[in-house]
Amino acid sequence: MTYRAALDGTSYAFTDLKRLLACASSARSGDQLAGLAAADDVERIAARYALADVPLTDFLDAPLVPYEADEVTRLIQDTHDRSAFAPVAHMTVGGLRDWLLGYDVDGPTLAALAPGLTPEMTAAVSKLMRNQDLITVARKIEVKTAFRNTQGLRGRLGSRLQPNHPTDDVRGIAVSMLDGLLMGVGDAVIGVNPASDSLPDIKVLLDMIDGVRERYDMPVQSCVLTHVTNTIRLMERGAPVDLVFQSIAGSQAANAGFGVTLDILREADDAARSLGRGTVGSNALYFETGQGAALSANAHHGVDQQTMEARAYAVARAFRPLLVNTVVGFIGPEYLYDGKQVIRAGLEDHFCAKLLGVPMGCDVCYTNHTMADQDDMDDLMMLLTVAGVNFLIAVPGSDDVMLGYQSLSYHDILTLRSTFDRPPAPEFEAWLRRQDMLTTEGRMRVSAPQQLGRVLGPTGGLVA
């Protein structure tokens, strides 16, 4: 079906939904690299005019990726809840945008709608929104999950403590972990990206982190972000696995590039839940995504990168994870060229995920060859906090010495907590208070190192 719009005396035709969605997207280098982007800003606006008039039912009738060839498409189509979709089934994309922005459309209404929306619908409506619109809608939505503490509660901000080390040195990781705990970071997860896939080395890290947690009765969860099949093997060997991690994408072929299928994810979810390690909940998976993943694997099926990213959230939603985050600027300037594109992508990803009922966080980050700087990251971290992001990632000094990219620092989390009055998960906040590390106003004490030092002992107790 061809979609048309006339603008300034010129008629524009878009041969199908793929082409229309790609041309309506905000400018980004990945779509230009793939030959999918609008020719110029005028064609982009014409595409948005045409997209606004598209009935939502068109996305159900014409899958962007063939049903027969792609298990992600089959997941989207087969799990679509038509009764949840009914309140908006008569709407166009533009009508959905206007409805979402209405004062009377609240969080519970959007939670009920989530099973009735497909990723393509959320991507389409996001393309008609300004940044402030993406924030206005997303902040209405609360997606709660729990393991040893509760994430996603309104008015709170979780944080991942990421103490990576280029050689997986257990003492170096322990020191970085202590540094983050001293600043009240780590309630979402203490998550290490290992430099090696050696199962014995990964088990050493899991044992160390879990030993600290148990010794000091910290209500946190841990994760070593190795491949899901490695984690399954570690669980079989009795390792103290809390969360199972995996990178995911929006097509079967892209997920195959990560070495996973939906069946493997189901196996991992079943295995992690069977351990019963959660105390206040049983959400046991942790997914990461990022715009450009499918394109970089040549597995995008001619679909623009933001829409493909939204399809990854359908995979996440199916497994009820504790955490999901977009590593928004990590893949590089070939996909998000500069700070403006990174900021826009972060807000889009958060909006689409929350609208689909996914517990979304973000690694506010960029690679050193991207046309971005820390001021751009300051802008995005603050915008996402206003938008109600579930959690953000922080590394020592905002410089990940193992992965070689720039993220947020532990200090940035302190800034967001105090500026926006966003405490951590309630169980973790209560632990900090028991250690006398918080002031009555909820800020970390200047004396927090001494306070925690009295708990940890003279050597820190982090490694043998």
UniProtKB/TrEMBL annotation:
UniProt keyword annotation of Lyase present: yes
Annotated substrate binding sites: 160-162, 193, 288, 363
Primary enzyme class: lyase
Binding positions for adenosylcob(III)alamin per the UniProt entry: 194, 246, 296, 402
Keyword Cytoplasm (UniProt): no
Pathway: Amine and polyamine degradation; ethanolamine degradation
InterPro entries cross-referenced by the UniProt entry: Aldolase_TIM, EutB, EutB_dom_2_sf, EutB_N_sf
Protein name (Swiss-Prot/TrEMBL): Ethanolamine ammonia-lyase large subunit
Organism: Acetobacter nitrogenifigens DSM 23921 = NBRC 105050
